[in-house]
Specification:
The complex is a heterodimer of chains A (327) and B (131). Chain A is α/β, with parallel strands linked by helices. Chain A has 14 helices and 8 strands. Chain B is built from no helices and 11 strands. In chain B, strands 1-2-9-6-7 form a 5-stranded antiparallel sheet, with no helix packed on it. Classes of the chains: A alpha/beta (327), B mainly beta (131). Chain A: This is Xylose isomerase-like TIM barrel domain-containing protein.
Amino acid sequence: MSSNIKRAVSLYSYQEEYFLRKMSLEECIAAAAATGATGIEIVGEQSVLGCPKTPSEAFIEQWFGWMDKYKVTPVAHDMFLDYNKKKGHYWTDEEAVESFKKDIRFARSLGFKIIRVIVNTTPQIIEKVLPFAEENDIKLGIEVHAPWNINSAWMERHWEVMERTGTKHFGFIPDMGGFTRRLPRVQIERMIRNGADPEIAKYVCEQHEKGVMAEYTIYEVSKMSNRRIDMVVAEMSRHNTFVNPLSLVPHMDKIIHIHGKCLEMLEDYTEYSIPYKEVINVLKKYGYNGYIATEYEGNRHIQDVYEVDSVEQVRRHQEMLKNYINS
Amino acid sequence: MGPLDKYILKEDALEATENGFQLKFQSHWYRSLPLSCMDFNLKINGQEIEKSKFKIKANGNEYTYKQLPELDKEWLYILDRGMLEVTQPMEKGKEYEVEFKYDLHIPYILVGPQATPLLASSVVTKNLVCQ
């Protein structure tokens, strides 16, 4: 089965440098393009002032100018549903749908063809917004994010909507964080710097790597320590899951995009926690067609002791993707 | 703890004004949020400032602390700084110990049986020279 895997970068990856104004939006796009990636993904409310309002004509013109200049394509916008912006007021489905439509208009105005739908969005809301997405030719992809996996009951409910409606505008966006075989070292080390017991952290890492169910590890740690921080370390095993990459196979035709999560790219172009080669081999063998977008997220765990270099982390991740896609 | 919590207060964050002082802060979250999702506590030299004294400024607009929970349409962009203005005298050029607790109630991450927004809270303690 032939696959066509393309490479993108989520500008979320450069959040540290962008936040500190070391890099402008244009410089983030340029850095992504310099890796050889051809697609751009954004978190709208991070990259574009005023999102999800439709940007001004001047911004739109500038945006497409950058796309041409750096020879990249807008691929995905990440949307969120702010259910509880006011204390005591929880959005109705209608309010959520209206917010969703704003994101669709926003995405369309900047040329994005895919919206990454935040994982807690209900299938009912997606079904209500689908006709509008179809009219605007925007594909919606439910984020398959740990602790859920593509075969979880929650995802099955979304799958039912895909099947029942037969739509071409709704699918899955797996996050590579769902294949975390080893707990992220940068995260564990940060927890130890924050006061977690190193021996407990070591135990949790070993249990996770052995594939022991997180709930058992959490229970064992609760007997070892009554400190909250040690429990947080144990709970990392619940929030950084590993499932067999073959779990993607039955859903391959419904995967519209992939988030290439990475927390620590090593000098040898591997990710410390995630066995990318295994996952990409499955994607290639079973015919995935779409982008993998680098999503570097390690900054938050190292910024207390190291200078963050997101550009280098993204570059290594893109090199790794290129190597595995082409091998 | 937020993903960018190290950078909430810059060295020039504390500034004397005609009526007192203002503290300039930047969000520690990766995505812009409205003011209604925020809360603040401030101590100067160990002394807690009464919240009713806060004036909150963002995007050229000014609000009382009491108005904060209603401000769901006033977003603070992640690259912009908001300001807390307090009518309490402060001496230009003098160093103060500032303890700023910045709570963000993340409106799209709902946790627990009551589905309440995740609390991302950061406390910054810094000695800052009043500008």
